[in-house]
Amino acid sequence: MQEYSSSVASSLPQLPKAPTGIEGLDEITEGGLPKGRPTLICGSAGCGKTLMGIEFLVRGIQDYNEPGVLMAFEETGDELAANVASLGFDLKDLQARKMLRVDHVHVDRSEIEETGEYDLEGLFIRLGHAIDSIGAKRVVLDTIEALFSGFPNQAVLRSEIRRLFRWLKDKGVTTVITAERGDGTLTRQGLEEYVSDCVILLDNRVIDQITTRRLRIVKYRGSTHGTNEYPYLISEDGIAVLPVTSLRLDHEVSDEVDSSGVPALDEMFGRRGFYHGSSVLITGTAGTAKTTLGAAFAQEVCKQGKRCLMFVFEESPQQLIRNMRSVGIDLQPLIEQGLLRIEASRPTVNGLERHLVTIHRLVREFKPSAVVIDPISNLISVGNINEVRSMLTRLIDYLKVNNITALFTALINTRYNQSEMTEEGVSSLVDTWISVRDLEGIGERNRGLSILKSRGMAHSNQVREFVVTERGVELLDVVVGPTGIVTGASRLTQQLQQHAQALAAQQETDRRDRELERRRRVLEANIANLRTEFESVEEELRQINTEEQNRQQTLSSGNERIAAANPPRYNAPSAGENNK
Amino acid sequence: MEPLLDPMDASEEPIGPEYLLHLYITGATPNSTRAVRNIKDICEQHLKGRYELLIIDVYQQPELAQEKDLIGVPTLIKMRPGLVRRMVGDFSDRERVLKALGVVPPPLATDRFALE
């Protein structure tokens, strides 16, 4: 997790801290527990005090190579080992590797007879020996208050406990002391007055039959820390603390764009899709293909060769795959390729926090490029609106920080007027909000899709009708009728009318073309006639001309013959002149 | 250390003395020195010749502290006779020490007065 410290804080000397390795706790303590000092963890029964202590030790050994000593006053080493084995902590192995020492201190009043003055040096020697033998850096004293039941002399006990904490500080070990919560006080025996460096309060409360565990840092001397109550969980991986809101709002943003998986829907966005790493909300009434849109997006992400994680709260994966196949979205091969993962669970199976932790864990494991959650509105059955909102805020923040595109669907039930769930809930957190709804007209329902908001890019303001076909979601072309955009049967009527009009117009054009052709033909016929007439006249004239020439020729040849018979006279006129 | 003996066997044990006491102290701290002095006193007075007192300095053998489950110091563990009993303190409260040791002294009160 990220360090909270800004540039200012990092330049100042910081209190040395021992990271706990507990998910989220280091984040709100800004690095861990005070190093070399005692920390008090108090809480009522069943809060996980002992577990937190043990996890602090085990994580210290596993992650930070710091050996630890566990001094248990209530449970024996074997019991503790058995209790935490289910969390994957192998105390026996750690003990064998000399990284951990477990010392069970048995305190039984009936066995101890006080006969005068004494001190608790025995405890000091045990602890000192345990610490020195493995070079421990961390110590957990699990419910040291048990001493109070064994030793009636409170004055001695108190001064000895005070001395113990002083001594632990001097030894430089980071100590965790657990204590049962008292009535009106943090601990039954007022241990908080001895341990004043850091106090963590665990709380287990039931609201509306749902248990939520919460953690609060009451004080942390010499350091800033998160001051809120943070929900925490005891999961199969140990304790996980969830900061309610992300501590930072300065995540990287991407300029890349992810396609929605529906080409026509992409067209409605100025940049042809959603920004990568943004959060998208699809709201709609029942049966408006929200899931289909979600699946189309998931398919598109996988087609790009990226991974996508789907959380479905209404259907089983098999059902989802079958249903999506009917609309041409085949998810099965994508799952087989390892690109898609579908996690299905009923919202009521777990509390909200556990859902969140599950999502966190899977996101960390699977490292998806996009996450689809279908639908978030079902979570309302597990928590109240505030809790759902805070959970979604954290989820959206988490995904944004990790640059994962998130697509949520939410059911809006207009009948019960629960639409404010999204409006007050998450709509202000998401970057893109697509609304799908029934456009109920005369005797029919049609699906309409519109973009309510899209941060950072222009978007269409039209309500587009869409149909779900065998080839997936298809947006229909916008048909504008006399009263605006029309859908369904009206759209068909409108289209028919337009078609008829177009046909009529086409016929009219054809008719005009034919008329023109006819006229052209007539004119051309006229031209041909005239040309024939002209040709005949020309022919006639040429005939006359030829006859004339022939006549002339005959005449001249006749003259020559006459001239040949009679010798020519001097100055006789030319033959031509004579002919005239 | 000696194995923990069954109380029944211990009572029948002919070899060892009747009382086997282990006293764990921490060096020469005031409580420890006082405890040694007091317990020796008590034993000499009430169990003369019938006891074996073993004094162990835990500082010298720190691993014993966990083994013997020591918390308060000085601690006296009565190994026999009877049930194993633990006593914490410097043994200034003789009445309780004797009661815990199982010594039934009719002349106890006079003893105490005589001592004082």
Automatic annotation (TrEMBL), chain A:
- What molecular function does GO assign, one term? ATP binding
Start-end of Polar residues biased regions: 1-13, 543-559
Q: Where on the tree of life does the source sit, at the highest rank?
A: Bacteria
What InterPro entries does the annotation carry? AAA+_ATPase, Circadian_clock_KaiC-rel, KaiC-like_dom, KaiC_dom, KaiC_N, P-loop_NTPase
- Positions of the KaiC domain: 16-255, 256-489
Pfam (any one): ATPase
Location of the region described as Disordered in the Swiss-Prot/TrEMBL record? 1-31, 542-580
Question: What's this protein's name?
Answer: Circadian clock protein KaiC
From TrEMBL, chain B:
- Any Pfam family hit: KaiB
**Which SUPFAM superfamilies does this chain map to?**
Thioredoxin-like
* CDD domains for the chain: KaiB_like (cd02978)
BP-aspect Gene Ontology terms? rhythmic process
Q: Which InterPro entries match?
A: KaiB-like (IPR039022), KaiB_domain (IPR011649), Thioredoxin-like_sf (IPR036249)
Looking at the record, the residues that make up the KaiB domain are 22-103
| Protein name as it appears in the record | Circadian clock protein KaiB
